[in-house]
Design goal:
The protein is an alpha+beta fold. The protein is built from 31 helices and 30 strands. The longest helix is centred in the C-terminal third of the chain and has 41 residues.
Length: 1010
């Protein structure tokens, strides 16, 4: 085939030119995203029942729901958290589960569970996690400080304006799917009866509710016929605003009075359950979510223009963009693009140094962009996107693409230097190495195949990397054996190579001396290699194990639970005081205190004593400083508070789950919720803090309760109606909503309230009217007591448990678990189980070891098929444990550990480095088959393959080198992979050049003796 193609240069050139043009055209249509398009295997269920306390909700609803959800297929993990009035259940499915069908099945189970719930309970919401649910950025809208007057109505007007104008203008953009909002304030009409009328007994909350109900009636339409005409008559006495309510007539001891004479009626803001602040100012948070198929760059451009219009049209408002995911995308993609460019240029310059002529490097250089563009064409056909994983696969593949071209060019050149004709050298030199090249590509692709079958999201994520490397290698192989020989013939038709007169470079003589030394000092060489293997084992023992490498962050979240029954206002005040004490302020600070209003919020709801803070620093170092200062201030000033730092939300966290504590001890009680349950939990917490001083990261979070218990005998004796009592108490606590008014597309609740200052004031002063019209004090009808309970009840797939988070090292795991089991051994009420990052990492490591074993087995099969030998593949694979020494050494030097990226680097390095040994052994076999002696074959093969081995290793290393100096998620994620490849390739090149020939000599020399 090659002989035919080199004589058809125009046809070959036109074919590749056509592929190039199609590739360039389709490249502009490739979607660009931060991560591959993967299904997030998470479905969440939100349960709301405002009248149920946490324990009742857990026992009657959530526990039943969990038991029914166990029937759902492929659920790997289930977790729930129940609080007063709400609960949240998260189901994490096995990777590969069709999440659309899984969410349908979950909905069916929820419908089934509804049969066991109270009749008045709303259906739980089922929320499917999606990659497109991550907001591109948050737009914070607030009044400029100089235009704020402090009037309460200002923020109500801003809330209405943001919802009716700003939101609608943003959602008109075709790339925007939804604008999710939080921090809004809503109006309500509050009716506060004057205490004098209530205490006199002439007026009551029951009478007020009855008067409002009688004057808020909608009878609908009546159709009346009058001769040949018919009319629609509507009877409407609905209340529409404050003035209508004030005109409601009330019978007060036979005298008709207007309601506004008996009560204060006002339009005001609803009581806050949560708010949003931006840099200390009350703000409205608008989360912009893109369409799933929208291009992020186009969306960002449109939104920037829209925000600029907002700033011009509404100068009294301030618009600030926070948590910008598009910057992370642009930064990561640009850095990977630079790595691709710089790596290719460095490899290209290295070829000039080694090939020592002008034309051959340009031939290899031409093959790189051609291979890349055609690879992107296949990206389009395969439905892949440009993301940090697929792009890093291309960067990894660039060095290997060059390798194929170098081997072909160098082999053709060697044939010409041995006086072969140009045509004969082109097709003879190419045909000679087609089989080992195909074998090399297959071995490299083979090491990626097991990665695709990894459990969890890791396998799905690195599918793109495996496919991108495989496509790149296959394309470069086709380019190398078809286009390059054709172009070589065109370039050198008029230029002869005077190969025999050219002096060999000095490194050839150094190599021959080194190889002779190794062959003469066989025991010393073997001992040196054994030392490397032993050192590699020791290095491995020193390395930390984690799921993913640490990526430098400039943003972080801080979740604070003050562990006290504080109001929203006190919550905001504490945060303000906390940040005022810092030596340096963050670039911006977003506070989300209490309950948030986001529609797509799939997490648990927060109470008024909780605050989620989003911090942005100018550098990772300043962020670390902020963390340290905040931890010190919180521990010193609020020792009872529970706080946790975490990474800012992005698609990577959503896909893989947020980082857990290193070790979580789950204490399960056989009868949770009994009288001494809290005391036993407090004892467990105390014992854990004593056993692990300074390492317990969590606290026992409780909330105080005021219990009002009615006395049935007194209610009967004083003839007090229970419903009337309930309405009066709700009104006293300002939670008695009577009805809602539809006002300008919004519903304004009308509620009856009071102006009591405290719970004690209500108990002592509230009077209840009995059936005889007598006033009975509330203090004579109820018993008041105090109590406490868990703020959040956490449960898993099996049962409810109390989690204690521990900060321990990998090496302390066995000691820590044994100590905890000893603590529980003497307590018959608790069982303990364990989870956390350390156990997850160990599971991942076991999985990776299996994958590496499968990869080596696949390599053995391929090599055995090529060499038609069961022993020669063992010589090649013997190189792998030796190369691990170099990979582990470089990882240790740069402060990296064993994680999924460094493990993939080791697997990739294994597939690359044995290619050199494959070529070396293939050349030795051919020379021996030609009649050369064993020693001469080894020396001649070493001389022939020295330059291509050095160049292929150097180009791969140089292509990886920019990863060590670039920043951003993409580059930092790939850094351990690059270190493993560079370290392994460095040692592996020496092993291929010296140790593999020695092992080949020992094996075949023994056979010759026999």
């Amino acid at each position: 085939m090659v002989k035919f193609l080199i004589h058809r240069p125009v046809a070959v050139s036109m074919a590749f030119l056509a592929l190039l043009l199609i590739g360039i055209a389709t490249t502009t249509s490739l979607p660009v995203s931060l991560m591959p398009d993967i299904d997030i295997p998470v479905v969440s269920i939100r349960v709301t029942s405002s009248e149920m306390p946490a324990r009742q909700l857990e026992n009657t609803v959530v526990k039943t729901m969990r038991n029914i959800l166990k029937e759902v297929n492929h659920v790997e993990e289930m977790r729930s958290e129940t609080r007063d009035g709400s609960a949240w259940i998260e189901l994490r499915f096995r990777h590969g589960t069709p999440i659309d069908l899984a969410s349908v099945e979950v909905n069916e189970k929820v419908d089934k569970a509804m049969n066991f719930f109270p009749n008045n309970m709303a259906r739980p919401e089922v929320i499917r996690a999606s990659a497109s649910d991550i907001p591109i950025f948050y737009l914070m809208v607030n009044r400029k400080q100089e235009t704020t007057t402090g009037n309460q109505d200002e923020f109500l007007q801003l809330s209405n304006f943001a919802g009716q104008v700003i939101r609608k203008r943003l959602e008109q953009l075709p790339e925007v799917a939804l604008v999710d909002m939080s921090g809004l304030q809503f109006p309500e009409i509050k009716i506060r009866p004057y205490p004098a009328h209530l205490q006199s007994g002439a007026f009551s909350v029951t009478a007020l509710e009855q008067a409002l109900a009688e004057n808020n009636i909608d009878l609908g339409n009546l159709l009346i016929r009058d001769g040949q005409y018919q009319y629609n008559i509507r009877f409407n006495t609905r209340l529409r605003d404050v003035s209508d309510i004030g005109k409601v007539p009330v019978n007060l001891n036979g005298k008709v009075m207007r309601l506004d004479e008996l009560a204060d009626i006002s339009l005001q803001s609803q009581k806050l359950q949560g708010n949003v602040k931006y840099n200390g100012q009350h703000a409205i948070s608008m989360a912009v979510i893109k369409q799933s198929d929208a291009k992020m760059a186009r969306l960002k451009e449109e939104l920037d223009q829209m925000i600029q219009h907002f700033r011009t049209d509404y100068p009294e408002l301030e618009f600030s963009v926070t948590r910008d995911q598009s910057k992370l995308l642009a930064y990561s993609i640009n850095n990977l693009g630079q790595s691709l460019l710089f790596g290719g240029l460095l490899a290209f310059l290295a070829m000039f140094l080694f090939l020592r002529e002008r034309r051959a490097p340009w031939l290899v250089g031409v093959s790189i962009p051609i291979s890349l563009v055609i690879t992107l064409l296949f990206f389009y056909l395969a439905g892949l996107s440009i993301n940090i994983i697929s792009l890093s696969g291309l960067v990894l593949g660039v060095g290997m693409m060059i390798d194929n071209s170098i081997i072909v060019i160098d082999n053709i050149t060697q044939h010409r230097q041995r006086h072969a004709q140009l045509d004969q050298a082109c097709y003879g030199g190419t045909n000679e190495i087609i089989r080992p090249l195909i074998s090399s590509v297959l071995t490299t692709c083979a090491v990626f195949i097991p990665l695709i079958f990894m459990k969890g999201m890791s396998g799905a994520l690195f599918f793109d990397q495996a496919v991108s490397v495989s496509i790149g290698l296959v394309v470069s192989l086709v380019v190398s054996i078809t286009l390059l020989p054709t172009l070589y013939r065109l370039f050198y038709q008029k230029h002869a190579i005077k190969g025999t007169k050219k002096k060999l470079p000095a490194y050839f003589h150094w190599y021959e001396k080194g190889l002779k030394f190794v062959l003469r000092h066989q025991i010393l060489s073997i001992l040196l290699v054994l030392g490397m293997i032993i050192s590699g084992i020791l290095f491995y023992d020193l390395m930390t194990v984690s799921r993913f490498p640490k990526v430098s962050q400039e943003e972080a979240t801080l979740k604070i639970d003050w562990n006290e029954p504080v109001t929203i206002e006190e919550n905001n005040t504490r945060v303000k005081t906390l940040f005022a004490s810092l030596s340096e302020q963050p670039e911006y600070l977003t506070e989300e205190a209490g309950k948030q209003q986001y529609l797509l919020n799939s997490g648990e709801e927060s109470g008024t004593s909780e605050n989620h803070l989003y911090l942005k620093a100018s550098s990772p170092e300043k962020l670390d400083k902020l963390r340290a200062e905040l931890s010190t201030q919180l521990s010193r000033n609020y020792p009872q508070s529970d706080y946790h730092f975490a990474e800012a939300d992005n698609l990577f966290n959503l896909a893989f789950g947020k980082t857990e504590a290193p070790l979580i001890a789950r204490f399960a009680h056989f009868n949770p919720g009994n009288e001494d349950y809290l005391d036993r939990l407090a004892k467990i917490q105390q014992n854990m803090e004593q056993a692990f001083p300074g390492k317990v990261q969590s606290k026992l979070i409780t909330r105080n309760l005021i219990l009002l218990e009615t006395d049935p005998e007194k209610l009967m004796f004083y003839q007090v109606n229970t419903d009337a009592l309930y309405r009066e108490i709700k009104s006293a606590f300002n939670v008695n909503t009577v009805f809602s008014i539809n006002n300008n597309n919004t519903f304004v609740p009308v509620s009856i309230g009071n102006s009591y200052a405290s719970v004690y004031d209500i108990i002592q002063n509230l009077m209840i009217k009995n059936q005889n019209g007598e006033q009975i004090p509330l203090s004579g009808l109820v018993k008041v007591s105090s109590g406490s309970g868990l703020k959040g009840i956490v449960a898993g797939k099996e049962s409810e448990y109390f989690p204690v988070l521990l900060q321990v090292e990998d090496r302390e795991l066995e000691t820590a678990t044994a100590k905890i089991e000893q603590l529980v051994a003497n307590d018959d009420h608790f069982d303990v189980s364990f989870s956390g990052e350390i156990l997850a990492d160990k599971g991942m490591l076991r999985e990776l070891l299996v994958i590496i074993s499968v990869s080596l087995l696949l390599l053995y099969f391929i090599l055995a098929a090529q060499f038609e030998s069961f022993v020669l593949p063992l010589i090649v694979l013997l190189e792998v444990p030796i190369d691990l020494f170099g990979a582990f050494l470089l990882l240790l030097v740069f402060g990296q550990g064993i994680n999924i990226m460094s493990a993939i680097g080791i697997i990739v390095m294994t597939g690359i480095i044995i290619n050199d040994s494959i070529l070396k052994i293939d050349t030795i076999n051919k020379l021996r088959n030609s009649g050369n002696s064993l020693i001469r074959s080894i020396m001649e093969a070493g001389r022939r393959r020295l330059k291509p081995i050095i160049m292929t290793s150097l180009t791969t290393i140089l292509a990886m080198l920019p990863f060590l100096f670039q920043k951003g998620m993409g580059a930092e994620l790939q850094k351990p992979l690059a270190l493993a490849v560079i370290g392994g390739m460095g040692i592996g090149t020496l092993i291929s050049l010296f140790f593999i020939p020695l092992m080949y000599y020992l094996l075949n020399n023994k056979r010759s003796d026999n």
